[in-house]
Structures are given as structure tokens and as C-alpha cells.
Write a structure and sequence with these properties.
Layout lengths: L2 H11 L1 E4 L2 E4 L11 H13 L6 E9 L9 E10 L3 E10 L2 E11 L28 H4 L4 H8 L4 E5 L13 E8 L7 H11 L22 E12 L9 E11 L2 E10 L4 E13 L1
Antiparallel strand pairs: 1-2, 2-4, 3-6, 3-9, 4-5, 5-6, 7-8, 8-10, 9-12, 10-11, 11-12
Helix pairs in contact: 2-5
Length: 284
């Protein structure tokens, strides 16, 4: 397995240090603070370790403080409820004695029921699209230093935007489509794939809310962005080592905040998950 992917599996695996208490480390992915998707994935991993024969169907989280990449994160799991069909867990992430994140996750015994779904957008498939790490040097120079560092850091996922590198070309519709998958095969563990999906669900989501604002988009140095909350619903089992289409849109930005939503489809057109996030978007 590719080393960057092996490192991510270790990162999300966590160390059990006491009953319902886990410790996680952080990886620098080129961002100035702990990547929000990492905390989401680790918190879901901690909660999943306390549940048997049930799979996560939703999570709702709040980012309270910036995470320190150089310090471990402690995850405390509270068993809020274990019913006949559903289990609920509350997870608190702590660094330097203070909460930096909290999340509630709900798990369900698998069962059948009524089904319908939104149609998958008609967009080109991943084959032939350029990965964001394959930008030519001349194009990369147009990006701010903080984004170049993010792009140049080795990562365990392929990311192929359907619309190319046109984020700096003026005001755009607040919609984008990105194909993603792990760069190598992963073990056949459903919980692992759900945790990994939570990890990548935070990639590029909030940036959708900046697209209509031309020279104030996410490429500009004078824009402060940070995740405030994150919600996710898991509809069907999926594999993150197979291509998934992330269809993002942003219905509103106001009050120095932006709302972004995402529908996640597998290549056969099945809607496997949905997500939503509100984030800080502040002009410095």
C-alpha cells in the first residue's frame, strides 16, 4: 500500500488509552491548523469502536477552536443511548485542556425500507481529467503560497475537478464537481470506508461558497476561511478506493458565513452520502 495511505490509516486508527477515551496524532497536509476532515474522521473512528453490529447513518459536528498540529488530540466518547435499532454517541475532542470540537453520531442496525434518490449530475467521468496535484508550474505560481503548500504536500487521495483550474477567472456559479478516490486499495472494512469518507468530505466543500465572488474567492490572501460546523448522512455503503463524485453547491453566503452542500455518488449513480457545512468567510 502507498505510504501516504498507510500513514492515514494509522492516523485514523487511534490509540485506546482508557475506557471510551482515545488519543490521535495529526498530520500536516499543508494547512496552518489541523485539517477539519481529520478531526471528523478520528471522532467517527472513536465512536465506531464503541458500537457493534451497527453502522453510522449520520453525524453532526461543531469546530470550536483551531487544532494544534504538534499536540495529540484526546477523544472522549459518551454512550448517550443504545436502543433496539439505534445507538447514539457524543464525542468531545480535547487539546491543551480545552474542547476544540464536538460531535454527535448515530448508528443503526442495517435494514431495508422505502428508497428514492436524486439523479446523478451528467458530468464527465474521472478518466482523462487532470488531478489538482498535476497543475503545471506556471499555473501553480498563480496560487497563493498557502494553497501551493497544500497542493504540493503528498496526499493519499486523487482529486480531479470536472471544471478545471478556473477559480481565478471571475465570478462563477456556486457549483462544482470533483471526483475523488484513495490512491491505493483499502481493506474490506465498512467502518473504515465510512471514516475515510468523513475525512474527505471536508475537502473543497466550503470553497464552493466563494466561487461567485470573483477576486474575493478562496485564492486570495485577504480571505479568512474556517469550518464552523459539519453534518453528514450515510445512505448506502461505499468504497473510497473507488471513484466517488462530489457534487457541491452553495445556496447562500451572508453574515461572514457561507453554506455549502454536497451529494456524493458512486460511479454507478448511487447516492451514497450527503453533507452540509457552514463556515466562516471573512474579509480581512
Amino acid at each position: 500500500m502507498d505510504q501516504t495511505l498507510t500513514d492515514l490509516l494509522s492516523l485514523l486508527g487511534l490509540e485506546k488509552i482508557e475506557h471510551n477515551i482515545y488519543r490521535g496524532e495529526s498530520h500536516d497536509i499543508g494547512t496552518p491548523q489541523v485539517f477539519g476532515g481529520q478531526v471528523l474522521g478520528q471522532a467517527l473512528s472513536a465512536a465506531s469502536k464503541t458500537v457493534t453490529e451497527r453502522i453510522v447513518h449520520s453525524l453532526h459536528a461543531y469546530f470550536l477552536r483551531r487544532g494544534d498540529i504538534n499536540a495529540p488530540i484526546i477523544y472522549q466518547v459518551d454512550h448517550a443511548r443504545d436502543g433496539r435499532s439505534f445507538s447514539n454517541r457524543r464525542i468531545v475532542a480535547i487539546q491543551h485542556g480545552r474542547q476544540i470540537f464536538n460531535m454527535t453520531a448515530s448508528f443503526q442496525i442495517p435494514e431495508d425500507g422505502l428508497e428514492h434518490q436524486s439523479a446523478m449530475p451528467e458530468v464527465p467521468g474521472p478518466d482523462g481529467l487532470m488531478d489538482i496535484v498535476d497543475l503545471r508550474p506556471a499555473e501553480l505560481e498563480k496560487w497563493p503560497e498557502r494553497l501551493r503548500r497544500f497542493l504540493e504536500t503528498p496526499r493519499p487521495f486523487h482529486m480531479r475537478p470536472v471544471r478545471g483550474d478556473d477559480a481565478g477567472s471571475g465570478s462563477l456559479e456556486p457549483v462544482q464537481y470533483v471526483w475523488m478516490k484513495a490512491i491505493d486499495s483499502l481493506p474490506d472494512e465498512p467502518d473504515l470506508h465510512q471514516v475515510m469518507l468523513a475525512y474527505i468530505s471536508d475537502l473543497q466543500l466550503l470553497g464552493t461558497a466563494t466561487l461567485p465572488h470573483g477576486d474575493r474567492n478562496f485564492m486570495r490572501e485577504n480571505l479568512q476561511m474556517a469550518s464552523l460546523d459539519h453534518a453528514m448522512w450515510f445512505h448506502k455503503p461505499s468504497r473510497v478506493d473507488e471513484w466517488l463524485l462530489f457534487a457541491y453547491d452553495s445556496p447562500r453566503a451572508a453574515g461572514a458565513r457561507g453554506l455549502a452542500r454536497g451529494l456524493i455518488f458512486d460511479q454507478s449513480g448511487v447516492l451514497v452520502a450527503s453533507t452540509a457545512q457552514e463556515g466562516l468567510i471573512r474579509l480581512r
